[in-house]
Amino acid sequence: MQQELLFKVLVIGDLGVGKTSIIKRYVHQIFSQHYRATIGVDFALKVLQWDNDTVIRLQLWDIAGQERYGNMTRVYYREAVGALVVFDVTRASTFDAVLKWKDDLDSKVTLNHGRPVPAVLLANKSDQLGSQQPKLDSFCRENGFVGWFETSAKENTNIEEATRCLVEHILNNEESPVVERDPGSLVLSGYTNTAKDHLNCSTCVKW
Ligand code: GTP
Ligand code: MG
């Protein structure tokens, strides 16, 4: 029997880093050079046939960069199970803001068992990189990101890979034990299929 899972995923990061462009590329396979700032929040739905038994509906919440200065994020973040945190590799200030977004996220939403929601860091506009970008492995480990990817909405680089990495971590949380009956015997929450089958993407850093 097919099971359907609905996941609310946030896409956050400073003004103009490419959040809307990443979503448009991922969901509609289009890209535009034209910048129109998102007001408040936008939505998009991506349906993934994850495996033979599982359809995943990813509800993407495209939060306007300017919302970091507003007071609506607590409402927008509610019941999210994962996040893409985006910065623009050509503007250092947007990288500095990454930790502010991450702190905002962690202070306003946690999973049932109190753990932070998995977040993947996207170094976007990588098509504009002259030289090699510094590696962000240790930055991610130190700051609680489950992985990072150099992405380009323009050239369609690594967007599928980054979302796949995030979904794998979301699924892992879904199946993590929640009830301890007696020592050594654990009861799994609703999702019991083994998501480990999918944990084979090499760029998805796991620790
Ligand atoms: P807000 O809605 O204001 O928070 O911005 P945003 O993060 O949604 O940015 P948006 O997707 O609107 O992109 C801003 C500008 O960057 C647009 O002009 C896009 O065309 C451009 N852009 C986005 N992604 C890329 C990319 O990967 N490469 C290049 N070269 N430009 C990009
Ligand atoms: Mg936008």
In short:
The chain is built from six helices and eight strands.
Can you give a write-up of this model?
35% of the residues are buried. This protein has a single domain, classed as 3-Layer(aba) Sandwich (Rossmann fold), CATH 3.40.50. The protein has helices at 19-28, 73-77, 92-96, 98-108, 137-143, 159-174, and strands at residues 3-12, 41-51, 54-63, 82-88, 119-124, 147-150, 177-182, 185-188. The protein starts with a strand and ends in a 19-residue tail after the last strand. The protein has 207 residues and is of the alpha/beta class. It has a six-stranded mixed β-sheet with strand order 2-3-1-4-5-6, with helices on both faces. Strands 7-8 form a two-stranded antiparallel sheet. 26% of the residues lie in helices and 28% in strands. Mean pLDDT is 87; it is low at 177-202. The chain contains six helices and eight strands; from the N terminus they run E-H-E-E-H-E-H-H-E-H-E-H-E-E. Bound molecules: guanosine-5'-triphosphate and magnesium ion. Its main location: membrane. It is a lipid-anchor. Keywords: GTP-binding, Lipoprotein, Membrane, Nucleotide-binding, Prenylation.
